[in-house]
Specification:
- With 780 residues, this protein is α+β, with helices and mostly antiparallel strands.
- It is built from 24 helices and 29 strands.
- It has a five-stranded antiparallel β-sheet with strand order 2-1-5-4-3. A five-stranded antiparallel β-sheet has the order 7-6-10-9-8, sandwiched between helices.
- α18 runs antiparallel to α19, α19 packs across α24 and α20 crosses α22.
- The chain is elongated, with a radius of gyration of 67 Å.
Length: 780
């Protein structure tokens, strides 16, 4: 079918119009979508703002239905907000209390009906959350139909702070009232000045001090308690304190109740408020301080006159006073030992001066003495110094934390005490060691002192003496031991004469056991009487025995003298004859001898010589022990004399291969018997030669000592043990039965000792096995 152009044109116009309308519809739809999206975003923003707002709205409709956010539900303690207002009632720690809910319901209904706004505060039960509710009639655009809009505010922090501020305010008011009461009741004058330094407040003590009618009168007339000092009034001083913002304290004089009193006045600036002041009456304190200073000065003056050293330290361990005796005892240096020196430094300086005991750990010792300050108890010590000084130290802690140190030099006292104790012990020991029986009686007739022999001598019980009996009781006890009891009157008279008449008397009594006692009474210088008793029975027996023994000794001495004289003749004469005949035979007077005969004769002559020496030794030793050895002293030069003695033994020394060293000065001289001293030294050299093996050494040393001239003969031979040396020194001694002599060792050493002692000297020997022997002769 063919369409006309007109129809086509109409169709085209229709399609164009439809396309344009569709485009316009699409544009309009896009704009509305954007507007809706913007509205939704705005709604979400508003909802978020409401959620973050400090107040949350709650809409209560006329039928009691409520609308609100979950945040509000959490404030009320619910997971989700209930649908109706009545369901806000709490149970199990959720919602509101019934009283709170009832009040809220009434106010909401009143707002719905009358459009009257309301305010109330509640605290959610079971929590610390405090909520403020502000209600009003809702705008019809929000909710038509008479709904109520309630804004809920959480002011928990503000409520806590407000409660705390209320408590602080109440406490501050109470404190202020108490402070005002305290200031008013204070016994000291107190006042307050404004920033213009004028009096604004005074207490009752201030009013009484200035003798005013009342506080208003004092403030109105500006009556000052303190007078002007150095041209400055009390108000001006307070102004200075406020200007410099520092308290000012001063001591001034004021007239109170007609009396001049010393006051300690303090002005205390109180920031921008003004200046507070108070005055303390220190008149009694000042008087006590003056009295204390006077007492301290008098005390120190008295301490300087004591013989005991006294030092005082304060609570800081500093020296506040030391009298002259203590400075002398401790040797305190005047330059560094003044007041103020520390206690520990004083001990250190005393140690340097040797005035403290010598201890191994001085710091620890000093620390222990520092503890005296806190010990709380008196400590007493004895210090023994290196120079023999004995100090008695007393440390007395003081109530103020200080220390009083007392040092007493007891050296002389202890010396006197030791001397007294020594004398008492010596007296007791002397009395107890005496053979006499001693007793001391007081003038009142009581026994005071006795020795150990007294009880046994008189036959008295020791227990009775320990009671210090009266003389009558003691004489009654002694009378029973006498052969004639009536003779006790003689003893009583002797004691009475010694104690009362101050006369010496003696007497004699016989005891029932046959003993004879002699006694005497002697007056003592202290007014007592001494009774001395001696048992003369044993003395008489001993005297008789001594007389008989003396006669026997005289006879024995005479016999010994004759024996030694006879033995000297009887021994020497045959030996001289034998020696003479042997020498004649050796000279060929009886004819020429054979070789064997000559040997026999030589052996006889040698034996006779040795026997002659032994006889001489025996006779000299016997004469020395009997005190009959003749000594003829002469002045001898010691070195040439000893040299000759050594030369006589030169052949024997060389024969054994020994070396002899002779030492000594040429100016040594002694007074001695030439023959006897030569024999003594020769015997000692002979013993050294015998005891020393071949190749050994002998030393003879001559020297001058302060105690005399010393001759030392030593060798490095075999030596002797102590037992062997004792036997060598003994030589011959009497046998145990007293009938003969026992030979202990050779006669050389004992004879040498006798010969040296006959010269007034001494012989001593020292010997060690396998080391050698040394003999020392000391001559005056």
């Amino acid at each position: 079918m063919d369409l006309s152009p007109t129809l086509l044109a109409l169709l085209g116009l229709l399609l164009a119009a439809w396309t344009a309308g569709a485009a316009w519809l699409m544009i309009m739809a896009g704009g509305k979508a954007k507007a809706a999206d913007g509205s939704r975003r705005a709604a979400r923003r508003m909802a978020r703002l409401l959620d973050e707002a400090p107040a949350i709205p709650m809409l209560v409709r006329a039928d009691g239905r409520i609308e609100g956010s979950e945040r509000l539900a959490h404030w009320f303690g619910f997971e989700r907000l209930p649908q109706f207002l009545s369901e806000l009632a709490g149970d199990q720690g959720r919602g509101l209390a019934r009283e709170q809910l009832s009040e809220l319901t009434q106010r909401v209904r009143r707002a719905q009906k009358t459009a009257a706004p309301f305010r109330m505060s509640i605290t959610v039960p079971g929590s610390q959350r405090s909520l403020a509710l502000r209600g009003q009639l809702a705008d019809p655009q929000v909710s038509p139909g008479g709904a109520a809009l309630v804004w809920v505010f959480d002011f928990s922090d503000s409520a806590s702070e407000l409660g705390r501020m209320r408590e602080e305010s109440a406490r501050a008011k109470g404190d202020f009232a108490a402070l005002v009461g305290l200031i008013e009741a204070a016994p000291m004058p107190m006042w307050f000045r404004g920033t213009d330094t004028r009096l604004r407040l005074v207490n009752g003590a201030y009013v009484a001090a200035v003798a005013a009618k009342d506080a208003e009168t004092v403030v109105a007339q500006q009556i000052e308690l303190v007078e002007a000092v150095d041209g400055l009034s009390a108000a001006q001083v307070a102004g200075q304190a406020m200007q410099h913002n520092q308290p000012i304290e001063r001591i001034v004089q004021a007239t109170i109740s007609g009396q001049r009193r010393a006051l300690r006045v303090s002005d205390l600036p109180l920031a921008e408020e003004g200046v507070a002041g108070y005055a303390v009456d220190i008149q009694e304190v000042e008087e006590q301080a003056r009295a204390h200073r006077a007492y301290a000065e008098a005390q120190r003056s008295m301490m300087d006159r004591l013989s005991v050293g006294v030092a005082q330290f304060d609570a800081e361990r500093r020296l506040t006073f030391a009298n002259q005796p203590l400075r002398r005892i401790m040797q305190i240096n005047p330059g560094s030992g003044g007041e103020g020196i520390l206690f520990e430094r004083l001990l250190s300086e005393a140690r340097d001066a040797g005035r403290t005991p010598q201890v191994r750990d001085f710091p620890a010792w000093r620390a222990e003495r520092i503890e005296w300050f806190a010990s709380g108890a008196t400590t007493e010590e004895a210090w023994h110094l290196g120079d023999g000084t004995h100090l008695r130290i007393v440390a007395q802690p003081m109530p103020d934390g200080g220390l009083a140190l007392i040092a007493e030099d007891r050296t002389e006292q202890l010396s006197l005490s030791a001397t007294r104790d020594t004398l008492l012990r010596t007296r007791t020991a002397m009395l107890d060691s005496l053979f006499e029986a001693l007793a001391v009686f007081a003038p009142d007739g009581h026994l005071q002192l006795w020795n150990r022999s007294f009880a046994g001598t008189w036959g008295v019980d020791q227990a009775l003496l320990d009671k210090h009996p009266a003389i009558d009781l003691l004489l009654e006890e002694i009378a029973g031991n006498l052969a004639r009891p009536k003779r006790i009157r003689v003893l009583a008279e002797v004691i009475r004469a010694a104690t009362l008449d101050r006369k010496e008397q003696a007497g004699r009594v016989t005891l029932a056991d046959g003993r004879t006692l002699e006694f005497a009474g002697i007056p003592l210088p202290d007014g007592n009487g001494l009774l001395t008793t001696l048992d003369v029975t044993a003395n008489e027996q001993a005297e008789t025995a001594l007389r008989e023994r003396n006669q026997a000794l005289e006879q024995a001495d005479s016999v010994k003298t004759r024996f030694l004289a006879n033995m000297s003749y009887e021994f020497r004469t045959p030996l001289t004859s034998i020696g003479g005949f042997a020498e004649l035979l050796q000279a060929g007077v009886a004819g020429e001898l054979s070789d064997q005969g000559k040997e026999y004769v030589s052996a006889i002559i040698e034996s006779v010589g040795r026997l002659t020496d032994q006889v001489e030794n025996v006779l000299d030793l016997s004469q020395s022990e009997a005190g009959l050895l003749p000594i003829q002293k002469e002045r001898l030069e010691l070195l040439p004399f000893v040299t000759r003695v050594v030369r006589e033994r030169e052949q024997e020394i060389a024969g054994k291969g020994l070396s002899l060293d002779l030492r000594g000065g040429n100016n040594l001289k002694v007074d001695a018997d030439r023959r006897q001293l030569a024999r003594a030294i020769g015997h000692l050299i002979d013993n050294a030669i015998v005891a020393t093996d071949a190749g050994g050494k002998i030393l003879v040393d001559l020297s001058k000592k302060p105690e005399g001239t010393r001759i030392v003969i030593s060798d490095n031979g075999c030596g002797m043990s102590p037992e062997e040396l004792n036997r060598a020194m003994e030589g011959l001694r009497q046998s145990a039965d007293g009938t003969g002599l026992e030979r202990r060792q050779g006669l050389g050493i004992p004879l040498a000792r006798q010969l040296v002692e006959a010269h007034g000297g001494t012989l001593s020997m020292e010997s060690r096995k396998k080391v050698g022997t040394a003999a020392m002769i000391l001559l005056p």
